[in-house]
C-alpha cells in the first residue's frame, strides 16, 4: 500500500513529533497586532495527532466564511484550545509585543490544565515556559497547529470588533476591524478617539489632543 502523501502543514507538525519524540503539539498565533483600535487576540490550540483538514491555512489566505467554518471544526476537534483578548489598556501599558506574549502565556496556562503539552510552535514569539518551543517566522503558513490557532484568533477578534461597531458605528469597525483605513482615520479626526477602544500608544492616536466627548450610540435618538 502506498504511503499517505502528507500536506506540507501536516508534514511539518508530524516531522516535529518524530524528531522530538513528542505527541501533543500546541500551536500559537495572534490577530490584531497592527490595528489602532481593539484588543489583540492570542490563541493556542492542541489538535489530535491524527487530525487534518486540508482547508486549514494561514487565516489571511482564507475568506471570512472559510475561517468561520474552520473555526467551528477546529473547536470541535481540538483536545484543548484557548483564545485570550488582551485589552487596549494592557497594550498601552506594556506594549503590543508583551501584550501578545501575555495573551499566549495565559492561553498556554488554560490549555495545560486540560491536556498535556509536549511541544510548542509559535509564529515568531518566545514564551516564558520550560516546555520545548519552536518560534518560526510565518508559522501560520508552515505549521498546521499554528495555522489553526491563527483562525481561532482571527474569528474571535473579528466578532469582537463587529460587536464594537454596534456601539461606535462612526468608526466602521465592522469593516476595518480597527485598522487605520482612510475612513477610520477621517473618523478619528472628526470625532476623536474613544478611551478603552483606541490604542493611545499608537500613532496617530497618540498625537491626537481630543478624546471623544460623547458619541450617540447606535439606535439611540
What do we call the CATH topology? Nucleotidyltransferase, domain 5
Please tally the β strands and state the result.
5
How many H/I helical runs? 7
Instruction: Please tell me how large the radius of gyration is.
Output: 19 Å
Order of helices and strands: HEEHEHHEEHHH
Which residue ranges are poorly predicted, with pLDDT under 50 across at least 5 consecutive positions? 216-221
The CATH architecture would be 2-Layer Sandwich
Largest sheet: 5 strands, mixed
CATH superfamily caption = Ribonuclease H-like superfamily/Ribonuclease H
> Widest sheet: strand order?
3-2-1-4-5
Strand content: 5-15%
Question: Can you tell me about this structure?
Answer:
The protein is an alpha/beta fold. It has a single domain (8-164), classed as Ribonuclease H-like superfamily/Ribonuclease H (Nucleotidyltransferase, domain 5, 2-Layer Sandwich). 40% of the residues lie in helices and 14% in strands. It has seven helices and five strands; from the N terminus they run αββαβααββααα. It has helices spanning 8-20, 64-77, 88-94, 96-112, 144-167, 173-176, 182-191, and strands at residues 25-31, 40-46, 80-86, 119-123, 133-136. A five-stranded mixed β-sheet has the order 3-2-1-4-5. Helix 2 packs across helix 5 and helix 3 (88-94) crosses helix 4 (96-112). The termini are far apart. The relative contact order is 0.19.
Keywords:
221 residues, Nucleotidyltransferase, domain 5, 5-stranded mixed sheet, 7 helices, 5 strands, 14% strand, disordered C terminus
